[in-house]
Amino acid sequence: MSGGGTETPVACEAAQGGGGKKRDSLGTAGAAHLIIKDLGEIHSRLLDHRPVTQGEIRYFVKEFEEKRGLRELRVLENLKNMIQETNERMLPKCRETMQGGLEETLQRLQAATDSIHRLQQREQERKKVINDHLTASEKQRMLQWEEFLRGQPQRRAEVDAEHRKAMERLREQYAAMEKDLAKFSTF
């Protein structure tokens, strides 16, 4: 029954061919040992799959490592080719494009800077003219104000004199009107 070598008789076989001795129900210690050994072999054949699974695992790991190693080599080779292509073709093109674009951009930037500088100068000149005009206007207004204040007492005196004359005329007129009214009230 065992798969690896000599077979040992099982308890039933030992009882049949063992002479004529009567055995008890459990049998002898040697027979029990044989039964346990046979049960262990049956158990290992039916239920213990460790040797098979270990072999499969070793095979899977070996295949995986071989395929992975080849895949990594291919990936590294592709990366190397891409880097070489980039260094040989793409990088010079990018440099040329960048140089051309930068020169044009710098020229435009310089032109914009010059025009802004001119605009700032014009604005400063315009502000200076406006400030000069405002300063001159302010000085002129101050002179006019001072002249006005100097002429004010004379004008006030003239107005006061004119007012006094008008008051005198009104008094005389009212006095004359009272006389005329007194003439008419005697009737």
Descriptive account of the structure:
Belongs to the BLOC1S5 family. Keywords: Acetylation. This is Biogenesis of lysosome-related organelles complex 1 subunit 5. This protein has 187 residues and is mostly helical. The protein has two domains: 48 residues; 112 residues. Helices cover 86% and strands 0% of the residues. It has three helices and no strands. The radius of gyration is 66 Å and the shape is elongated.
* Structural class designation: mainly alpha
The rounded Rg comes to: 66 Å
Could you report the average pLDDT, rounded to the nearest whole number? 81
**What's the main sheet like?**
none
| Overall tally of domains | 2
The portion of residues forming beta strands comes to under 5%
Helix content: over 70%
Q: Which parts are unreliable, with pLDDT below 50 for 5 consecutive residues or more?
A: 1-24
Number of helices: 3
Total beta strand runs: 0
Give me the strand/helix succession: HHH
Compute the separation of the termini in Å: 181 Å
Shape: elongated
Keywords: Acetylation
Protein name: Biogenesis of lysosome-related organelles complex 1 subunit 5
Modified residues (N-acetylserine): 2
Family: Belongs to the BLOC1S5 family.
